[in-house]
Amino acid sequence: MLAPPLAWLLVVYVGSLVLLVAGAFFSLDEFTGKVTSQTTLSNLDEAFTEPAYWSLVARSIGVAALVTAICLAIALPVAFYVAKIAGPRAKRALIVAMLLPLWSGYLVKAFGLRAIVEPGSGGRDGGLLASLTGWSPGFGYPAVIATLAYLWFPYMLLAVHAGFERLPDTLVDASSDLGAGSLRTFRSVIVPVLVPSIAAGSIFTFSLSLGDYITVKIVGGTAQMIGNIIERALLAPNQPLAAAFTLWPIGIMVAYLWTMGRLGAFENL
Amino acid sequence: MLPAISLRGVSKSFGAVAAVDGVDLDVTEGEFLTLLGPSGSGKTTVLRIIAGFEAPTSGQVLLGGQDVTDVPAFRRDVNTVFQDYALFPHMTVAGNVEYGLKVKGIPADERRRRTAEALEGVRLADLGGRRPSELSGGQRQRVALARALVNRPKVLLLDEPLGALDLKLREEMQVELKAIHAEAGITFVYVTHDQGEALSMSDRIAVFNRGRIEQIGPPREVYGRPATAFVAGFVGLSNLLVGDAALRTVGRAGTFAIRPEHVAVTDDGPGFDAVVTSIQYLGPDSRVHCLIDGGGTVVASGSSGRLATVTLGQRVKVSWGPESVLELGPHH
Q: Which residues on chain B are in Cβ contact (under 8 Å) with A168?
């Protein structure tokens, strides 16, 4: 029964991943720009020993972590309200509102954010923020982080909401019964019980942010992330070097998934 | 002495539904009071109002004479044992028991001592390091009890605490709870729909129906002199005689109840002619269902030995003493 889908997964997903990693070990013909059959470690050498790339990787991780933190900070109170306080009709409407952003396109949303943060310059009017307030963060990392947080927020919200739905009301009652105020209950009971759901949601926000390069191009200005380096190598064209760079996000995501797995992210899928 | 708990005209509506409808109740300090009623009768809502989880729509809640109607749950000197136990899954057993003391800022060494004592009190001294998920239902129940009692509350609220346990364990826990009540000397308010549990454990029983208290009193009084047809039917078995059957058997109009143990079934002698329609054998006791000639069914119960000679379809006489006929008030 499961054999055909498993075979499909093996060929398409694992197979292409293996090809990708293997590609990093081949050299490029300088003159024709084609991949040769000669193996080499020089691509890995360039991708992993160059300090400029280290700081780029560190910045990418920082962006993904910040996006995750922002999504979580907004998702916790919103999901709490939807799951535990809103009446049945408000709840239905809010869940639809939560899902609605997922129905519009990635580019539409990214360009929408661009239209908001665009700075005014040289007599040209700026975006919405600039014309309303005279101030705008402009293009750069803050705009990238805001856009990515906006793009991936629904995933965090849905995961945290599912966690709140599973949290028995009596646990909150019991904590309050034992003398804990709302903040204490939130910190000592609600958040720890939600950790697996938060971990599951963070996998989406973190991995989708870490690998992004289109948003960076649209609102990032001069900002760069791992994805942009990979794209540039790929278009150079230097497929082996691009493959070597992808080992960075693959390695980071393996470590991240392992950590989140330890926190129970996969227990309640 | 001021009552430990007073409810004055407490009502609670959820939308258009009145879950609690004008309840007045005084609970004496140290008393074991049971709120008994079918599901949806408002007994759990009353408990949650005392705990502070629900605010009454109208009326007042007093604890030890203090009006606490607007005081949140975490500032009330009561603790609750929940029906589903509500143990914190991410804490150990000891962590659960310690939680209330920690929240109140009790120093660590005293906390540890009292936690150990509380776990010992419910015979779980060795399981402090376990997670709730690693315990049996009965053990979880006792952790919930220790977690509440360790705070030395003035009032302990118990919401169907034995509902999820099997019969044998439930009976053991009933005895244990009574012992804990006697030892701790604190006020217990106990919610159950099990009339046997209510009769065997309580100092007083408040029988709930449709958000109101139908009758409140000691178990013997509630069982022996039910005030309404509802109480007569819900607390123990009753033969209800109304209309024609009442006129014929009691001799006047009204609503009457007779306990099955007060109905005698004999081969001859005085009494009403009847035929045996069914016999229930329950081990030590048996129940005999009889259809009185002219209409009206009565159930007689007695020791199986005494009723051994009764056979299905047999013509018998059923009789009862006039003192065992209970006249009931109108149904609410």
A: 84, 86
Question: Would you say the pTM of this structure is higher than 0.90?
Answer: no
Domain, as residue range, for B67: 5-233
- Contact assignment for B73 to A171 by CB distance below 8 Å: no
Query: From the CA of A206, how many Å to the nearest CA of chain B?
Result: 25
Give the span between the Cα atoms of B135 and B146, in whole angstroms: 14
Q: Looking at beta carbons, which residues of chain B come within 8 Å of A174?
A: 80, 82, 86-88, 147
B249-276 burial, b at 16+ Cβ within 10 Å, e below that, comes to bbeeeebbbbbbbbbbbeeeeebbebeb
Cβ(B237)–Cβ(B259) below 8 Å: yes
Confidence of residue A268 (pLDDT cuts 50, 70, 90): low
Residue B158: beta bridge partners?
A: B81, B190
Domain ranges of chain A: 26-164+193-262
Count: domains in chain B: 2
Do both B132 and B266 map to the same domain?
no
Interchain contact, B74 vs A180, CB within 8 Å: yes
Q: Cβ of A178 and B74 within 8 Å?
A: yes
CATH at residue B320? 2.40.50.140
A26-164+193-262: CATH topology is MetI-like fold (1.10.3720)
B79, A177: Cβ pair inside 8 Å? yes
For the segment B13-69, what is each residue's pLDDT rounded down to a tens digit? Answer: 998 889 999 999 999 999 999 999 999 999 999 999 999 999 999 999 999 999 999
